[in-house]
Each structure stands twice: as structure tokens, then as C-alpha cells.
Amino acid sequence: MSREEVQNQWRELVEEFRKSGETAAAWCREHELNPEQFRRWVRKFSNETPAKEPVAATAIQWLPVQIADAQGDDLQSMLVVHVGSAAIEVHNGFSPSLLKQVVRVLAD
Q1: Rounded distance, CA 52 to CA 45, Å?
Q2: What is the pTM of this model?
Q3: If we measure between CA atoms, which residue out of 61, 62, 87, 86 comes closest to residue 78?
Q4: For the chain: N or C, fewer Cβ within 10 A?
Q5: How far is CA 54 from CA 22, 29, 51, 57, 77, in A?
Q6: Which of 10, 48, 45 is nearest to 31 (CA)?
Q7: How many CA within 13 A on the CB side of residue 2?
Q8: How far apart are CA 8 and CA 1, in angstroms?
């Protein structure tokens, strides 16, 4: 087996290990590998960036906005944002970064 083939074989093993979520010791026992040798290969490949899978295009979905009848300044001081089945009341002086985080969590 050529040096390149050996490297590719170890690279595949290291990638499989990283995806497993197991400890190196447990993974080596399971695959009957020498832990010291395996750790050397893990260190060797640690500086390499893994091959990125193509990112699927994210579709933008617009949501309908309904404005309820309000008395006086109530309409200007509060907004209700619906994300799925959740409703978020947004008042004057809100934190845009907090709202962004909450909407992202609800959208997931």
C-alpha cells in the first residue's frame, strides 16, 4: 500500500471517529486500533479542515403581519411577533439582539 493510500485510510478512520462522539480509547478498543498510533494520526489531521458538504439554499419565508385595532399610543408602543405557534410581544426599548436570538430559537 502506498504512503498516500495509508494516509487516506487513516484520514477516513479519524473522520469516522470524530463523527462517532466516542472517546478515543473506546473507539480504538471497538476498532482494535493502537490508541497511541491513532492519537498521532488524529493530531496529524487536526490542522486540516474537514471537507465541507454543500450548504442547501435556505428558502425565505415571509410571514403575514396582522395589525390589531388599538387605542391611542398602544399601537406604537407594542408589536406582537408570531413565530409558529408562539407570540412575542415587543415593546419600545426592546433589545434587538435578544429578539433575534429568540426568533432563531423558535424558528428551529
Answers
A1: 15
A2: 0.43
A3: 87
A4: C
A5: 26, 33, 9, 9, 43
A6: 10
A7: 3
A8: 11
